[in-house]
Amino acid sequence: MSTVVMKNVSKSFGDNQVLKDVSLQANSGEIFGMLGPSGAGKTTIINILTRQLEADSGEVYVNVGSKEIGLMLAEDGLFPRLTCLDNLIIFEDIYKIKRSHTLEILEQVGLTKAMKTPAAKLSDGMRKRLVLARAVIHQPKILILDEPTSSLDPMTARGIHRLINKLRDNGSTIFLTTHNMEEATNLCNQVVMLHQGKIIERGSPKEICTKYNSVKTVMDLESVFIQLTRRD
Ligand SMILES: Nc1ncnc2c1ncn2[C@@H]1O[C@H](COP(=O)(O)OP(=O)(O)O)[C@@H](O)[C@H]1O
Ligand SMILES: [Mg+2]
Fold first, then answer.
1. pTM > 0.85
2. Is 44 near ligand 1, meaning CB less than 6 Å away?
C-alpha cells in the first residue's frame, strides 16, 4: 500500500509561520484533496512532501521510491523547443517505457494531433495536459498534483479528472491541491481544509457537509469553509 503521511509538520519562512502542526495521510486507491485559498500553504506542503523544502519540525513519509512518484507542479519544466512527443520520449529511457505506451498516453490526454507541435506553441490547456502526460507516463504509485486544473476551461478540466480517476482505479494514491471546492467535492474521497497553514476540517466531502447541515440549510464545502473561517 502506498501512502503519503505528514505528522505534526510546522514550517516558517523568517517569522512568518506558514504551516502549523499539519498532520495528514493519503492512501492507495484514494484521491486526497488539500483544499484552501491562495496563500493557505498548499504548495509548501507539496514542497515538503517532495523534499524540495525541509520542515522545521514534524515527520514526513512517502513510502515508495522516487521513480514511483509522478509530479505535476506549477513550474512545468517542459522543454519549449521540443515537440510534445519529444518532451515525453526523454522519459522512455529513464523509465524503460515502450514507444507504443508513450503514444497511448498522448492519445489519452488528447494530444495525438499536436504531437509534433513544440511545447512553446501549446495553449495553456494543452500544456497542462502534456505535463500531466509526463507525470503519469510511468504509471506512478503516488501522483502529486499542485492545482492541476486551475485556470483551465471546464472541458479540459473534465479530461484531466477522467485521467486522475483512472489512475486511482488502478490503485495509485493521488494527492492534489485545489482552491476549487466544487472540484474537490466531485473528485476527492478525502479532503483536508487548510486555512492560514492550519487544518480546520477533514473527512470525505459528504461527511464534512453533513456535519454542518442544519434543518434550514444544506451545506456545500464552500459554505462550510466560509463558516469556519468567518471572523465574528
Ligand atoms: N520560499 C518562500 N519564502 C518566503 N515565503 C514563502 C515561500 N514560499 C511560500 N511562502 C509564503 O508561505 C505562504 C503559503 O504559500 P503557499 O504554500 O505557496 O500557498 P498556496 O500554495 O496555498 O497558495 C504564503 O504566505 C507565501 O507567501
Ligand atoms: Mg500554490
1. yes
2. yes
User: If pLDDT is split at 50, 70 and 90, which confidence band does 36 have?
Assistant: very high
**Domain tally, the chain:** 2
Same domain, 133 and 145: no
CA distances from 20 to 10, 35, 37, 40, 217 (A): 5, 15, 16, 11, 31
Phi and psi (nearest 5°) for 12?
A: -125, 150
pLDDT score, position 23 = 98
- For residue 75, what is its C-alpha cell? 513550474
For ligand 1, atom 4: residue with the closest CA: 13
Same domain, 103 and 199: no
71-75, 122-126, 155-159, 193-197: range with highest mean pLDDT? 193-197
| Candidate from 15, 38, 43, 196 with most ligand 1 atoms within 8 A of CB, to mutate | 43
Query: How many other C-beta atoms can be found within 10 angstroms of the C-beta atom of residue 230?
Result: 7
Task: Answer yes or no: is 71 within a domain.
Answer: no
Q: Please, what is the average pLDDT of the chain? A: 93
Q: What is the CATH number of the domain that holds 10?
A: 3.40.50.300
Residue ID of nearest Cα to ligand 1 atom 9: 44
Residue 155 resides in a domain: yes
